[in-house]
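Q: What residues go here?
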């Protein structure tokens, strides 16, 4: 599916913010409790450190911090809706977004969650853009936050070394499709036939209706790494080509490539296929790992802060994850006063 905004009602980014919890986990820390090595983790994933929530910290705590920072960086802190993309809501019911909106002092506005695992930010961007295009909202706070380590089996070396916690957020307002910050055509896709490649088997209606005792490990995130890897490269490459083409851009015109930080080797494979030179590839996976839905806005916020992402840059965003679900879009980075 590809959708572009109708004339005059594009969603335009006017604020960005991010947050990672203070506790840092190094590869050395993981080596003390898992059958792995610093060398394996660095060469196979590109990760050296990642952040992890302290006991008792929930997704909403990360979301509130990132949301507050995005609102502060925006020209006006008022919004009509809060959309939260997350795989790790505070509770199975209700959605986490209303509590986040209330804690941000935005109580009363529309607030709901979007569930698209690591593609959550792009699905959230499409949802927020849709609210704006339909005239339901003039301004939307989109937050993507995951306390991913809360669903990871600490003893599973294939997932425990990759996944981490964090949050990123953007403020969007109604504007014109040709102004800086306007969200370009959004490409989204899914493949439920391969849903079992990434899953938390327990805790949902499938198991609960059977009233069976859960199997050990069913409460944890499970991923078929190799197969997921192949789908990720293929889908992000394809979606990226579509988004760039629909935007009327050439791949060679891209200034920055901002992909979901799944694994450094996946990012390299996609960027190589798209022939994006090294110096145009944004990455923070070495420091923050794979933060699920939060990955792209966390990357954008940190890159803007470090001056790696500058006003006027033509940026390609792409993501892939559980569902399976994937997406891509383009943005000309706005001047947010960094
Ligand atoms: O966020 C969106 C969705 N997720 C992704 O896109 C992640 C996709 N997948 C990956 O990033 C990679 O597949 C992993 C990092 C999970 C695994 O890397 P890989 O290069 O695909 O390794 P593999 O699964 O093919 O395993 C190779 C070997 C195996 O040992 P044998 O069977 O060859 O003896 C694994 O048991 O590496 C072993 N292995 C490890 N060894 C040391 C797996 N994890 C580890 C580990 N430390 N942490």
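A:
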């Amino acid at each position: 599916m590809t959708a572009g905004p109708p004339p005059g009602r594009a969603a335009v980014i006017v604020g960005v913010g991010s947050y990672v919890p203070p506790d840092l986990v190094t590869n050395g820390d993981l080596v003390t409790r898992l059958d792995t090595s610093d060398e394996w983790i660095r060469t196979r994933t590109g990760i050296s450190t990642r952040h992890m929530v302290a006991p008792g910290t929930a997704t909403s705590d990360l979301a509130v911090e990132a949301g507050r920072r995005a609102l502060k960086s925006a020209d006006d802190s008022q919004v009509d809706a809060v959309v939260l993309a997350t795989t790790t809501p505070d509770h199975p019911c209700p959605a986490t977004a209303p509590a986040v909106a209330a804690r941000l002092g935005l109580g009363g506005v529309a607030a709901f969650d979007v569930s698209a695992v690591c593609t959550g930010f792009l699905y959230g961007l499409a949802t927020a853009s849709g609210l704006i295009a339909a005239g339901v909202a003039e301004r939307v706070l989109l937050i993507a936050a995951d306390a991913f380590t809360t669903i990871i089996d600490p003893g599973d070396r294939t997932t425990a070394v990759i996944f981490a916690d964090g949050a990123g957020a953007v403020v969007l307002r109604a504007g014109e499709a040709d102004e800086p910050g306007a969200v370009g055509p959004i490409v989204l896709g899914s493949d439920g036939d391969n849903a079992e490649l990434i899953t938390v088997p327990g805790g949902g209606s499938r198991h609960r209706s059977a009233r069976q005792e859960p199997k050990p490990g069913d409460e944890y995130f499970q991923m078929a790494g190799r197969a997921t890897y192949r789908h990720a490269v293929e889908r992000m490459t394809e979606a990226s080509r579509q988004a760039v083409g629909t935007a009327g851009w050439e791949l060679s015109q891209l200034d920055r490539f901002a992909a979901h930080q799944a694994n450094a080797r996946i990012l390299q494979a996609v960027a190589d296929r798209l022939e994006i030179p090294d110096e145009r590839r944004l990455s923070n996976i070495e420091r923050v790992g794979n933060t699920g839905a939060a990955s792209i806005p966390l990357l954008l916020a940190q890159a803007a802060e470090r001056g790696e992402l500058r006003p006027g840059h033509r940026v390609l965003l792409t993501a892939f994850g559980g569902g399976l679900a994937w997406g891509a879009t383009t943005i000309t980075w706005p001047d947010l006063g960094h």
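A: Context that may help when evaluating the design: The chain has a mean pLDDT of 95. The two ends are 34 Å apart (CA to CA).
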